[in-house]
Amino acid sequence: MTTTRADFDQVMVPNYAPAGFIPVRGHGSRVWDQAGREYVDFAGGIAVSAVGHTHPKVVAALKDQADKLWHVANVMTNEPAIRLAQKLVAHTFAERVFFANSGAEANEAALKLARKYASDNFPHNRKDNKCLGCTMAGCHCLTDKFEIIAFDNSFHGRTLFTVSVGGQQKYTQGFGPLPQGIRHLPFNDIAAAEAAISDKTCAVIVEPIQGEGGVTAAKREFLQRLRELCDKHSALLIFDEVQCGVGRTGELFAYTKFGVTPDILSSAKGLGGGFPIGAMLTTDKIAKSFGVGSHGSTYGGNPLACAVAEAVLDIVAAPETLAGVVKSNQLFVDALNVLNAKHQVFRQIRGDGLLIGCELEAAYEGRGKDLVKAAEVEGLLLLIAGPNVMRLAPSLLITPEDIQEGMSRFGAAVAKFVAATPAAAEAAPPAAPPAPVPQAASTAVAKAA
Ligand SMILES: *Cc1c(COP(=O)(O)O)cnc(C)c1O
After folding, report:
1. In angstroms, rounded to a whole number, what is the distance separating the alpha carbons of residues 205 and 166?
2. Does the predicted model carry a pTM greater than 0.85?
3. Does residue 24 sit in helix, strand or coil?
4. CATH number of the domain at 60-317, out of 3.40.190.10, 3.40.640.10, 3.30.950.10, 3.90.1170.40?
5. Is 141 within 8 Å of 176 (Cβ atoms)?
6. Residues of the chain above pLDDT 90, percent
7. Looking at ligand 1, which atom is closest to the CA of residue 278?
8. What's the confidence (pLDDT) of residue 54?
9. What whole-number percentage of the chain has pLDDT above 70?
10. 414: Cβ–Cβ under 8 A, 6 or more apart, which residues?
11. Is the CB of residue 379 less than 8 Å from the CB of residue 39?
12. Other CB atoms within 10 Å distance of the CB of residue 301
């Protein structure tokens, strides 16, 4: 019996709207569907396939571990988990690691740890020393240090806590009552952060580069000021590097690029290269608040996931991989500028390394999905980040040939897309001089050619 895309609509909960074809095979930065059609993969499974599809070293690690041990649960530890944790500790500020199965779970752990740390260390923060009214024995309500500060347009996952912390209201509509003590501020607004962060703040959570929110980098001074404010008010600074970490920016983790060290860092997506894993990294001192029994996960730290992630991390952390990301960024940005000079579809090309965002001109407002579909027709997988931003998050190992081939397909897709928008085609005739691509005021913005 053949499985078809139409079957999806019969048996699946309708929360996704997948493409019209079903991929069945992948290698490197190419994917093939049921009909044998080939696609260049600029989407990377949403910034997940960090080393491309079926990388031989990663396949070998998975097969090797598959023959040894799949699962023991956390009543026992296992060798791959310890090895992976050792490597993450060696490569980062962190001294302790907690493993989960996804980005949302890594953030859930980070946010719970921040609440617990505040409750452990500032149990009598409330000036009036009055319980907030809970009836639990040994309550910690005497602290009012539970506020979590997050930013507009941020994305931190889909569990009820992480989706409430995320700064996109459309994702929480209909799911109330929501967890309390969460406040949202405008991103990159130093004055707003100064006004809001206080002794009641237990944590500030931020994506150094907002991924889902539109590929928008934080300003270095903004992250630096958040660091200072967190220090001043004994709040924890959490960097959500689920999307921008694991080599995406050309550094193993983005925080080193910004020169700001968080107290907690969450990782996932690229970490497993396609095998589900998440990790929360922190310091020894903070980790103490997650004592025995305080938090857990059946699968988190599973030997299969950790063996795969170890192989991925070894490849990504290699200097030649990270240098390759910077080189590939330049190839992409140059090609995107050439494409844009011809068609004037993007008002800005931004991002860093191999997380690139192209914001559509006003004439194409809200039509990102149409361009994704046009690209599919040409044999190219693309992503959007919100309705107006095209997002590229390919394998960190993508070859110059695949970049060139994919960009040529992108060009063909854009030409048709533009032609199908008569008003825009008139407003920006191909004969017009190429519009310069403005650069965002950030250190982490891709250089325009
Ligand atoms: C994707 C993403 C998440 C959620 O990860 P899941 O694995 O889907 O739970 C969290 N934070 C950021 C920044 C992400 O991009």
Report:
1. 9
2. yes
3. strand
4. 3.40.640.10
5. no
6. 88
7. 7
8. 98
9. 90
10. 339, 343, 345, 371, 374
11. yes
12. 26
242 lines ligand 1 (CB under 6 A): yes
Q: Where in the sequence of the chain do the CATH 3.90.1150.10 domains occur?
A: 319-446
Distances (CA, A) of 2 to 25, 34, 35, 39, 329: 16, 10, 12, 21, 40
Nearest CA to 207 out of 192, 183, 223 is that of 223
pLDDT, position 449: 32
Residue 154 Cα to ligand 1 midpoint, Å, equals 10
Name the residue among 192, 132, 145, 195 with its Cα closest to residue 167: 192
Mean pLDDT over residues 129-145, rounded? 62
Q: Which atom of ligand 1 is nearest to the CA of 157?
A: 4
Domain spanning 319-446, CATH architecture: Alpha-Beta Complex (3.90)
Contact by Cβ (8 Å): 47, 394: no
Cβ of 243 below 6 Å from ligand 1: yes
Q: Which pLDDT tens digit goes with each residue over 301-334?
A: 999 999 999 999 999 999 999 999 999 999 999 9
> Mean pLDDT lowest for which of 235-249, 267-281, 426-440?
426-440
276 lines ligand 1 (CB under 6 A): no
Domain with CATH 3.40.640.10 in the chain: 60-317
Convert the pLDDT of each residue in 4-20 to its tens digit.
Answer: 999 999 999 999 999 99
CA of 218 to the centre of ligand 1 (A): 17
Whole-angstrom Cα Rg for the chain: 23
